[in-house]
Design goal:
The structure is a homodimer. Chain A is of the alpha+beta class. The first copy, chain A, contains twelve helices and 16 strands. In chain A, the strands form four sheets. An eight-stranded mixed beta sheet of chain A has the order 4-13-14-15-16-12-11-7. The first copy, chain A, has a three-stranded antiparallel beta sheet with strand order 1-3-2. The radius of gyration of chain A is 22 Å and the shape is globular. The termini of chain A are far apart. The relative contact order of chain A is 0.16. At the A-B interface, β5, β6, α4, β7 and β8 of A face β5, β6, α4, β7 and β8 of B. β9 (about 170) of chain A pairs antiparallel with β9 of chain B, so a sheet runs across the interface.
Chain lengths: ~400, ~400
């Protein structure tokens, strides 16, 4: 391993720094760690394999960083609402993890997936119940959303056009009764874990992919239909994204729980409901007395099609995020409200009563991240937490 | 495709017929469908690819069937308790699906994974809440169990020794910024779906496998520790098994929801708690007024190591199942209570206070199957359901 340092000679906003730290792993597979310092002119510290050509890497990194920065610069974040918590107590992110692990409340299973116990588990389930109740108050009906999706579902919605690299693909061993082959598969434990290289599998044409965004499997249900009235549902599901070296604790995990709200209807219905969701975000910050803000957001990547999609995103203020304060660190996005226009209506042939493509919007609460932010803001003594949050934990 | 028919000239009990129908797909990959008639001397109707040698296949199938039948014959099912529902109304399984699909309450996403809406979703979430409450009454604390497991977790617990073929393995695309490669991956839609055959991936050494049994990721949390007292937890998670051609609706799906209860402690603590779980099963049948039974069970496969494990299973009455009646069809196992002896204690070095390996047991409720059985027994008019079940749906 060696380290390449790069001081940027242009200004980079904090949301762009986060984008860089997240996406730069895709510049070159030999990059094993990316650190972006918290300065206006940040220093990038890149750890990479010994056989990396530093000059080539530097040039490539700089080109990608400039692209992301310029794309994002055109769309500055606009804060819609900010809530200052009345509680002064707060812990840095790293200390939260240390405490959670020491108490065995969070235990890593795999890089990016965890087992939770204690108050962490109580808070997790309690928040999902709270968000579900809020969704019901808005009129949402229950939906169960699967995590195991047909790859065709993500191809049809164009998700894989931009985000194939985030996919967690699923395959199986082909039916082969040779005991030896199966046992060999099971026993081939090595440094790298399981070795399936000599076995026939479905990996070249994986039939399934884990849901990267909770609402994706909902639209096929309405495919080919004309809606007599708007459809409003809520469900809990787990989502999965492969984030390479950017995978970090509860902030960016590979498996994460989502409470989702989805509306499909006419354009005006969607616009009106989006406002209800934004109001909900605001109410929630006040009600739980958590410090944070509601702001517009974008999700840039350095591949052309993603840039095009993001342009579309930002030009209509189509993505809002609730970002909670983390002591001495970057804020964390714990919920997002997304307008899809008629993207899914067109992809799945879902029509309004007048025959035109239906519109949709969704809201997702990232439950693991809510837990992280709450521990960071209020610490580990639940009796000192805001009363509403104490009730959430008590269940 | 061609069809091979085989009339068995020996008696085969109903649980053995189910085992045969489930496992025979692993005799030869060319088998695409297996039907076992509901007779004491059943006829097997096997659909297979045109290039199958019928004589070889027949011989192989007969050998495997004889092996499974003889293994299972030594361990007849013992009914512990039976409850007759006071409601006479009931629908055959196929009619339940037709109705669920017609109402859009169940919609297939992929073979073995579904989206649920309407009363199906209400019942699903309601049952999980009920089972969670029952677990809490027994003293269980919340646990969040991940679905994305390290392959090493299943190697260490020996799960993959017997059940590697059930695995849903997870891989990712290697970090490669070539836009073309990513886009090619996304767009390579064909008859077979996604084509990743030309892309560098982690499939040969998959780092993750989807949880095939809810309790598996819990034990690593306690690894290397000595328990001062018993540990009792409950959590909801989704489990995943690849069942080849045996995948069938809600009866045998590839993704299924589980409410799990796990106890780790001393031998006597586990034995006593197992009895509490068996009592719970009995109470539940009465309370919900669903027709079914509590019985001992085994889970044979035709690979030697599995046979050994099953011997161990049966010799201690270590597996009980709640099996609910399905109109004009085989009953369905909707919950199981499993004694593990010190299997996991030894695998993960979890010790009792006296230094010996800890014992464990678990109970899993298969929520999707409960829903299927309830619709089969009581139909679609919720107002006619047993009152307790109406409350479950109302939430």
């Amino acid at each position: 391993m060696k380290t390449v340092c790069l001081r940027l000679d242009f200004e980079v906003a904090s949301d762009v720094r986060e984008t860089i730290a997240k996406n730069l792993y895709w510049t070159d597979r030999r990059i094993t760690d990316v650190d972006v310092s918290e300065h206006d002119h940040p220093t990038l510290t890149i750890t990479c394999a010994d056989d990396t050509d530093e000059d080539v890497l530097q040039a490539q990194v700089l080109a990608d960083v400039r692209l992301m920065a310029s794309q994002q610069a055109g769309f500055p974040v606009r804060t819609v609402y900010r809530h200052q918590s009345s509680r002064p107590y707060s812990l840095p992110e790293q200390q939260v993890y240390s405490e959670l692990m020491a108490r065995n409340w969070v235990s890593p299973e795999l890089r990016g997936s965890f087992t939770f116990t204690g108050i962490m588990a109580d808070l997790y389930y309690g928040l999902d119940r709270l968000f579900a109740d809020l969704a019901k108050e808005l009129g949402a009906r229950n939906v169960y959303l699967p995590s195991l999706l047909d790859t065709k579902t993500l191809l049809k919605s164009s998700y894989l056009d931009d985000y194939a690299h985030l996919g967690n693909y699923v395959f199986h061993l082909h039916e082969d009764r040779s005991t030896l082959a199966l046992i060999a598969a099971a026993h081939a434990e090595s440094e790298d874990g399981l070795d399936l290289s000599r076995l026939p599998t479905s990996a070249a044409n994986p039939e399934a992919v884990l849901s990267p965004a909770a609402c994706q499997p909902f639209y096929p249900l309405l495919a080919g239909s004309a809606l007599a009235e708007r459809v409003l549902v809520t469900g809990y599901t787990r989502c999965y994204r492969y984030e390479s070296g950017a995978t970090r604790g509860l902030r960016r995990s590979r498996e994460f729980g989502v409470r989702e709200i989805i509306l499909v209807g006419t354009g005006p219905e969607v616009t009106a409901f989006r406002q209800e969701l934004l109001d909900l975000c605001r109410d929630l910050l006040e009600r739980l007395d958590v410090g944070g803000e509601l702001a517009t957001a974008s999700d840039p990547f350095f591949i052309d099609t993603a840039a095009r999609y993001r342009m579309f995103q930002m030009s209509f203020d189509v993505k809002h995020e609730v970002r909670l304060d983390i002591h001495r660190g970057p804020a964390i996005a714990v919920a997002s409200v997304n307008l899809h226009s008629d993207h899914f209506g067109k992809a799945w042939d879902i029509r309004q009563a007048d025959g035109s493509a239906a519109h949709s919007c969704c809201m997702g609460f990232g439950i693991d991240r809510w837990c992280l932010a709450i521990f960071s803001q209020f610490g580990f003594a639940v009796r000192d937490w805001p009363r509403t949050l104490q009730e959430v934990v008590a269940g």
